[in-house]
Amino acid sequence: METFIQWVERLARVATTPALIGLILSLGVVLTARRWPLQVVGMAGMYAVVGVLHARVIRPEVVLVKLLVGAVVCLALAATGRSAVTPSESGENENENYDEARPPGWRGLFRKPLSLADDIPLRGFALLAAFMIAYAGSLRFPLPQVPFFVGLSCYLLGVVGLFLSGMAEEPLPVGVGLLIFLNGFDLFFGALEPSILVAGLLGMVQLLVTLAVSYLTLTREPEGERG
After folding, report:
1. Residue 199, Cβ neighbours under 10 Å: how many?
2. What do you get for the CA distance between the two ends of the chain, in Å?
3. Alpha helices in 13-107, H assignment, sequence order
4. How far apart are CA 131 and CA 181, in angstroms?
5. At what angle do helices 171-192 and 196-219 cross, to 10 degrees?
6. I need a labelling partner for 54 at 20 to 30 A (CA). Which of 12, 46, 124, 156 fits?
7. Helix (H) or strand (E) holding 2
């Protein structure tokens, strides 16, 4: 535990500008990615950067809880995305002979390039608009008891989460947007109530959202099988 505490203390000394840049890049990956592996990578980067920002305002023990929650959420999203891949999405041919011992979609997972969304200009503009809204909001309505860059990150996470949920059509990206929004709320409220109990309750909310999204994603009927 002492080693981890020292590691978190070093994270707290990381400059806020690189952390903010890393947050913007991670959110950009989540917004513009069309396939789930890139979205999971972006979410992992976002949780890492949020952990760095948490380290500036709360105790290292609480940061550990939040990082563990982020790791569980990312693993659950990755398992959900891999299980929800269909043969057409993974690039597999139904007539092709392949090892049935492998999970569905595993062979074709990295066969096709990890392409971006077709509406990437719109999503890029949404990310820019979200940053402008967050910057203006952090100047006009600064959040109490948090540094400026932490407040800016809270606004950015909240706005990007709402944008992503509004633009998504599938349960998985909608849930990712909700998780991003919850991370913005968690980053702010965690500074107001920096206790392990509150961190555990907020982490439980994220886990419940992840379970609900996984259930809806795996039980959703493909479009071709409806009606």
Report:
1. 25
2. 55
3. 16-32, 36-54, 60-84, 87-90
4. 14
5. 180
6. 124
7. helix 2-12
Report d(CA 49, CA 21) in Å as an integer. Answer: 9
Backbone φ and ψ for 170, nearest 5 degrees, come out as: -105, 155
* pLDDT tens per residue, range 166-220: 888 888 888 999 999 999 999 888 878 777 888 888 889 999 999 999 999 888 7
Q: What is the spatial distance between Cα 54 and Cα 19, in angstroms, rounded to a whole number?
A: 11
d(Cα 22, Cα 157) in Å, to the nearest integer?
13
Bridge partner residues of 33 (DSSP): 116
- Alpha helices of 86-192 — where are they, by DSSP H? 87-90, 120-140, 148-167, 171-192
Amino acid at 6: Q
Identify the CA nearest to 182 among candidates 196, 166, 162.
162
Q: How far apart are CA 178 and CA 168, in angstroms?
A: 11
Q: Please tell me whether residue 103 adopts helix, strand or coil conformation.
A: coil
- Which residue type occupies 127? L
